[in-house]
Amino acid sequence: MTPVIQRRVQLGLLVVGLTITAMAFSLIVGCFKDDAAIESSKATVMAEVVSVDPLHAAVAFQTPDGSFHSPRFGLLYPTELSEGQRISVEYAAYNPDLARPTGRTAMLAIIPGLSVAFAGWAVVGLLMVVVAEFGRRSRGAESAAQDGDDAPAGDGENVPAAAGGDAPAIDGESTGPAGAESGEESLSSR
What we know:
The chain is built from three helices and five strands, in the order αβββββαα. The protein has helices spanning 3-40, 110-150, 177-188; strands at 42-53, 56-62, 68-69, 86-92, 95-101. Strands 3-2-1-4-5 form a five-stranded antiparallel sheet. It starts with a helix and ends with a helix.
């Protein structure tokens, strides 16, 4: 992987991380905005929980003017509810579709929002490390291949010794100025 491609991939991952963070903070801000709307014209009634799943709770209630309402997107903060349960619900009088169980606020959205941002950055960080390691290894393999192409044809053993130094010994004999004496001793000892 070239450094340019690696940088572009890492910038793309950075954009993904920033987008996840923006979405998480939008979730938290949206919950506070909905709570402010409910607080501005709060009305409280008893409601019956019609259906429940892990992320949604549908309720039905009657407003003081006699009309029945079932918020089309369910309740805000729907945890720990069971079907058939009767609960107190706060809603915005001008918009009965905006409802929450009494006593629950946007503070319940902070931990999930921050954990989404944290998990997103953990995944992005891990992917950035993987991309950096892959780029480092591929550049290392490329430079090793280039070093192999630039090396001399021989394996380095047949390179002559420096001038005035000892030449490598052949069959126990050495040549050169210091090798002449040792070569004679070698012959005489045989």
